[in-house]
Amino acid sequence: MVVRVPALVAGTWIEDGPTAERVGPYTRTVVSRTRVAEPGDGRIAAGYARASARVVARLAPATRAGILDRAAALAVERRDELARLIALELGKPVKDGRNELVRVADTFAVCAAEARQIGGDVLPVAGWERGVGNTALTYRAPAGVALAITPFNAPANLLAHKLGASFAAGNSTIVKAPPQAPAVSAAVVRLLLDAGAPLEAVQLLHGGGEIGAELCAAPEVAVISFTGSAETGAAVARAAGAKRLVLELGGNAATIVCADADLAAAARVCARTGYSNSGQSCISVQRVYVARPCFDTFVDLLSAEVAALKVGDPLDPDTDVGSMVDEHAADRVLGWATEAVSRGARITVGGTRDGATLTPTVVADPPADASVVTQEVFGALVTVLPFDDFDDVLATCNTSRFGLQAGLFTNDLGRILTAWRELEVGGLVVNGSSNFRLDHVPFGGVKDSGFGRESPRCMVEDYTVIKTLLVRGLSIWGEN
């Protein structure tokens, strides 16, 4: 059955007009048919959002919080339905899709809690001579119109972050969905609307870079949150001009395994988190640096764990690894692996593909300048490299142009604090791989991994503006 996916523009669900088909990467058949944006849709959406912003802003924080709590409950109720859509459109195993919907529910619930916390301050102006006899107050007001541009790899939860925080802040939101996951995006938008959000709160447009660029440039848009590649993020920034931006971009995540680590446990974690969603995560384990005395043992342990992963039909509840987003992506990753082997690396497991399904692949000891080391792989491949000195491996990790998140396996507190200080990343996971995230904890990177932090609290701050009230001649502190 092909899912028909409408657009939501100016308060109306629209099916008529130009359409695009999404071919499921595993089924290799059409799974959804989407009404894509046509000329003028972006202008209409931006104008409607600007006019509607006041409707959302006037909702009491308690009202917005109640809606978000109900959306969280609906995410749990519809978990199986949405997990199936994710599996069909993206090839992501249905059990991972179910886990993603659990995170969606958590994210909406945290956004609800943050909506209840929005407030302001009484400023200590009387502490300075010119401030005596005056009162200054601030509060956080909605920015107005937010644009959320979401990626395909976690289409439900990353949309929940952007849309949930924007609604909690009191904005009208335009969602530009990824072409690879239109049905999933529409289903998440419906969670918020079915929970009671007014139609003025959200619009949903489908299409490619052209509609994205039009929306980024729209003067009505006050803030843009984008998750995707560094190259597209740069294009978003150019099109946006002088707008507030939150950019969560690519990664080339490193995980360091020290000699005092539990090697078996580290191998299990790296196998589980290096190939979840076929490695299509900006913090997926990509480079694993292992203390040289432990290197061969770790490679054997990791290879055995990876070989035990079940690869296949994403709708099978026992499947660990489904397909990548499309055949081109799988072919690119396999090509990089082949290049590394031609330069002296060895593939210890995997190294084959069937259509968009790449068998989980381990590349041991590739050259330091191989593509699988220097580029963002974003696929079902993990490289393993030896290191001799801890300070040197930190410096090696920092040679990447990306700096999103890293992992470290050790029990040495000195090493932990040194790595936390020296690694050029936005976050460090200790005794875990790079691929771990708590949705209510600040998340984001440095260098080409972007700027800004994605968690409901941080995003509410980005989606609001501070408004100051100065009252002359009136003070709670008196004149002197």
Characterization of this structure:
By secondary structure, the protein is an alpha/beta fold. Helix content is 39%, strand content 22%. It has a 7-stranded mixed β-sheet with strand order 15-18-19-14-13-21-22, with helices on both faces. β8 (145-149), α5 and β9 (172-176) form a beta-alpha-beta unit.
Describe the structure concisely for a colleague.
The protein is of the alpha/beta class and 480 residues long. It is built from 15 helices and 25 strands.
pLDDT below 50 for ≥5 consecutive residues: which ranges? none
For the largest beta-sheet, the strand count, sense and barrel status come to: 7 strands, mixed
Average residue pLDDT: 97
Instruction: Report how far the terminal alpha carbons are from each other.
Output: 76 Å
The number of helical runs is 15
What is the global morphology?
Answer: globular
Helix content: 25-40%
Number of strands: 25
User: What percentage of amino acids are in beta strands?
Assistant: 15-25%
